[in-house]
Write a structure and sequence with these properties.
It catalyses: O-phospho-L-threonyl-[protein] + H2O = L-threonyl-[protein] + phosphate; O-phospho-L-seryl-[protein] + H2O = L-seryl-[protein] + phosphate. It is an enzyme of class 3 (hydrolase). Its EC number is 3.1.3.16. It comes from Ensete ventricosum. The protein starts with 8 loop residues before the first strand and ends with a strand. The chain has a single domain, classed as PPM-type phosphatase domain (Phosphatase 2c, domain 1, 4-Layer Sandwich), CATH 3.60.40. The chain is of the alpha+beta class. It is globular and about 60 Å long. Strand 1 and strand 2 form a beta hairpin. The strands form four sheets. Strands 1, 2, 3, 4 and 9 form a five-stranded antiparallel β-sheet that branches. Helix content is 34%, strand content 23%.
């Protein structure tokens, strides 16, 4: 389930017969659609690449096991094996497979979860780089973010990953006639309403006297985990704190009004043909 302002959310579904999986993604954007758009355009591709590396590593280990048996215990790594290890430094799912039948073991499942996590981390790093490159023309990007909910169905295994308050709910049926399905929530909600998340925020910011203000993280978000939202994660993106400009002030500037903040920042808001609000920050002359 996801909800937000019109046009800020994205839903993605991919059924791959070649790979034998079904992927679904829900990206619940806020403060703009850029983060959700970025996820829809990159996350699945990142996941596919990481799963490819995982498959290569499994095949590599199986082949080396067979070579070791046929050579009396001695084996030499091929150039392909070394290349895969070089590409796979970030994954390291700690697989230990003895045969192809063991590809559905717990170690393989942990490897898939590592793939999902690595893909999301890479997507956010790439998004933050884009924000950094476009900050001069799009200062509003530092506040843009998205909740993330992905589901990957492979064989009889269901893998779920989430950030924020988007939830995956499984409907279970019973053998009793006319017995309605029972919902089971598969994901945790990452908001300050969750006691564990509240304590984590306080523990992660021991030097901050007020990480939670007015029931929100830094007085801004009720979410405790989200994709993007650079100004809450990196000092260099904290444009609002440096200029005294808040998200609400930025979005409420009247159209065509030129406002000056401090000595070196000017904000002008214009309306494009599609009536979408945009903002520009520049050095005043």
């Amino acid at each position: 389930m996801a909800g937000g302002a019109a046009g800020e959310d994205r839903v993605q579904a991919v059924c791959s017969e070649e790979n034998g999986w079904l992927f679904c993604g829900v990206y619940d954007g806020f403060n703009g659609r850029d983060a959700a758009d970025f996820l829809a355009g990159t996350l699945y591709e990142n996941i596919g690449y990481n799963l490819f590396l995982l498959e290569c590593k499994i095949n590599q280990q199986i082949n080396e096991k067979n070579v070791q048996h046929s050579s009396g215990g001695r084996t030499t790594k091929s150039k392909l094996s070394l290349d895969i290890e070089s590409l796979d430094n970030k994954l390291k799912p700690n697989l230990s497979l003895n045969s192809t039948e063991e590809c559905s073991t717990e170690s393989f499942r942990l490897g898939v979860l590592n793939c999902l996590t690595s893909a999301l981390v890479q997507a956010e790093n790439d998004f933050m780089y884009r924000v950094e490159q476009e900050m001069d023309d799009r200062p509003d990007l530092v506040s843009v973010g998205s909740c993330v909910l992905t589901v990957l169905l492979h064989g009889m295994d269901l893998y779920v990953m989430n950030l924020g308050d988007s939830r995956a709910v499984l409907a279970t049926s019973s053998l009793i006639k006319d017995d309605p399905p029972r919902p089971i929530q598969l994901t945790e909600t990452h908001t300050l309403d969750t006691e564990e998340e509240y304590r984590r925020i306080l523990a992660d910011h021991p030097d901050d006297p007020s990480p939670v203000t007015g029931g929100r993280v830094k007085g801004k978000l009720k979410l405790t985990r989200a994709f993007g939202v650079g100004y809450l994660k990196k000092v260099m993106f904290n444009f609002f704190r440096q200029t005294g400009l808040t998200t609400e002030e930025l979005m409420n500037i009247p159209v065509g009004r030129r406002r000056k903040y401090h000595d070196d920042v000017t904000v002008i808001v214009i309306i494009l043909g599609n009536k979408q609000r945009t903002s520009t920050a520049s050095t005043s002359i």
